[in-house]
Every structure is written in structure tokens, then in C-alpha cells.
Amino acid sequence: MKDVLDELSEARRKMGTSTLPAGEAYTIELSRRYDAPLDDVWDAITNPERLGRWMKPVTGEFRLGGAFALDGGEHGEILRCEPPRLLRVSWMFGPGADEWPGTSEVEVRLSPGSTGGTEFELVHAAAVGEPMFPTYGPGAGGVGWDLHLLALACFLSSGEVLEHEEFSQSPAGREFSRRSAAVWGEAHLAGGGEPGHVAAAVEATTAFYLHTGDARDK
């Protein structure tokens, strides 16, 4: 297993645009390779017992038309499920979220790697105008997903379970979050973000994760 800080360089990040049922959306996108068979990665993201070991405890059924709920409050419905290559879910979080359907979706795509292993792509689309973006930019969700993809890397490589709260409070975890906020700032700039807004968003995201140690993956 690589040093956890080296794992940040394994992922490629960008911002984009999309359309959700609720209207125009922005996306945060991550892609990387895992040195594990495609079927194993698919099982790790759809088998509730395994998913709960690297992400959060979860209940529900990962099948088309099914629903899920994570221990942290995130929940949604399975919108597409094409084993072992594509999973799309609605992604709702917070009080009153269910009153605004179609505002947040997460899609994961898997494909065989050209040199072995599995190519993993995650796209989180959120409706333009959602309240987190003006303050935190893409780091609001991006840092949380970086932490989860790190946990998945640990789990796939050795079966190790990364304790999120303990890691987030450790020196390595705090540095990981700081660097993650910075690289999401770079993606924000590359996506056309205004430099002043980007700098303020990186500062706010860094302060949030370092002061609370609470990975917010929404």
C-alpha cells in the first residue's frame, strides 16, 4: 500500500457540467485505477456488508429500483444498475433534502484497465444553486470523495479498514485533507473558476475539514 498522501496523485479530478431532473448542474469528477479485478471492485461498492467496511454502514438493496441509506444520513434510490460496470444513484443529504428531488446524483463507472486492474470513474452532479458551492466550491464534496476513495484503496489492497474519524484527526489525515482541498482548487480554476472565489473556497474547505475532522461527502 502506498503512503496515504501519495494516493492523492493516483486520481485525476475535474469539474464539468451536466443536466439533472431539477435542471442545470455542475459535476465533480474523479477517475483512477485500482489494482483489483473489476468484479471485486463492483462487489465492494454494491455489497452492503463490504461497502459498510470502507465507507459507512449502509442498509438497502443495490438493484434497479432499490433504495439505500448510509449511517451518516446520506440516502437515495438506485437509478441505474448494470453489473458490473455502472451504478447511478440519487444522493440526498440533510433536513428537507427529500423535498428537492433530482438535485444530486452520483454515478460510478467501472471498466477493465489497459494494464490490468480496474478503471474507476465517479461523477457527482449537484444542481447549480445548491448552498455549499458558493462557499466551498468543488471541495465541499471533493475532499470527502477523496477520503472515501483512499479508504477503498486500503480495503481493496489489504482488507484494511480505514477508521475515518481517527484518520481525519491524525497528522497524516489533516495533511491529506489540506492537499485535497488544494488540488480541488486547481480543478476549480481549470474549470473556469474566478481566482478570488477559488482561493476563498479552498481556504473555507481547508478550515472546515481541519477544524472539524468531519469528511463531508455530499
TrEMBL record:
Activator of Hsp90 ATPase homologue 1/2-like C-terminal domain boundaries: 35-131
Protein name in UniProt: Activator of HSP90 ATPase
Organism: Rhodococcoides trifolii
InterPro entries from the UniProt entry: ASHA1/2-like_C, START-like_dom_sf
Membership in a protein family: Belongs to the AHA1 family.
